[in-house]
Amino acid sequence: MENLILSNIELYYSSSYNLKSQIITIDSDESSHILNVMRHRMNDEIYITNGTGKIFKSQIVQINKKNIDAKILNEFKFEERFPNITFCIPMLRNNERLEYALEKCTELGVTNFIIYKAKRSVPKKVNLVRVEKILLAAMKQSLLSWLPKIRYVGSMDELTQFDGEKIIFEQSSNNYFSRDKINSKMNYLFIFGPEGDFTADELDSLKSSVKYKLAENRLRTETAIIKVAALL
């Protein structure tokens, strides 16, 4: 059986494939990159992920004006690293810091995100379309095969309705967070505090949460997020 050495490939994305014909169709944005930037041509072999754990070794068999068709030659399956963990990230004043944290977490294998609005969050809109593009690019760049899922909720009350053991990261905790604190058979919500900290009401709604410390010194929100992803 052929082994796939991930460091030796360029990875593309398509969710449009026909299992019966074993043909993958790659849309205009991705096909333009394949043809005009990477200079691939007919019969070239390329690697494509469907974003749900599969990478296909494929051969370009048709070049159209707006897409490319590729024939599947081989299929490789990969397990999702942390299917039981969701990172719950507050809206930040600086969108670039939020996007950076999401990008780095994706590179480290995190695949489930919720962006939430805390009471002390600065009022602004989250451009989920832009964020999804950043996550897609990070997945491909890191040669991963699971496209992260992301959603937005408008309050802590909404956030606490999701199932899973809730973990918050508090400077006052005496227990440091580490990978061995996580049970692979349980679902978790990792809830990161906003820049202005939680309000008393929000802390009350999180009183049953498990609390862990990340460092002796205080960390920026985005630094804490990336550190937890790196510890997993």
Protein described:
- Helix content is 25%, strand content 27%.
- The strands form two sheets. Strands 1-4-5-6-3-2 form a six-stranded mixed beta sheet.
- Helix 2 (95-107) packs parallel to helix 3 (128-141) and helix 2 (95-107) packs parallel to helix 6.
- It is α/β, with parallel strands linked by helices and 232 residues long.
- The protein has two domains: 6-77, Ribosomal Protein L25, Chain P; 85-231, 3-Layer(aba) Sandwich (Alpha/beta knot).
- The longest helix has 14 residues, at 128-141.
- The chain has helices spanning 28-37, 95-107, 128-141, 156-159, 200-205, 221-231, and strands at 11-13, 16-18, 23-26, 45-49, 54-63, 68-77, 85-90, 112-116, 149-153, 165-169, 188-191, 210-212.
Topology:
Layout: E1 11-13, E2 16-18, E3 23-26, H1 28-37, E4 45-49, E5 54-63, E6 68-77, E7 85-90, H2 95-107, E8 112-116, H3 128-141, E9 149-153, H4 156-159, E10 165-169, E11 188-191, H5 200-205, E12 210-212, H6 221-231
Parallel strand pairs: 1-4, 7-8, 7-11, 8-9, 10-11, 10-12
Antiparallel strand pairs: 2-3, 3-6, 4-5, 5-6
Helix pairs in contact: 2-3, 2-6
Level-1 CATH class name of the largest domain: Alpha Beta
Straight-line distance between termini: 30 Å
Low-confidence stretches: none
> Per CATH, which architecture of the largest domain?
3-Layer(aba) Sandwich
What is the helical fraction, as a range of percent? 25-40%
Estimated structural class: alpha/beta
How do the SSEs run, as a string of H and E? Answer: EEEHEEEEHEHEHEEHEH
Shape: elongated
Q: Give me the number of helical elements.
A: 6
Count of distinct strands: 12
Strand order of the largest sheet: 1-4-5-6-3-2
CATH topology of the largest domain: Alpha/beta knot
Our Rg estimate from Cα atoms comes to 20 Å
Look at the structure and name the CATH superfamily of the largest domain.
SPOUT methyltransferase, trefoil knot domain
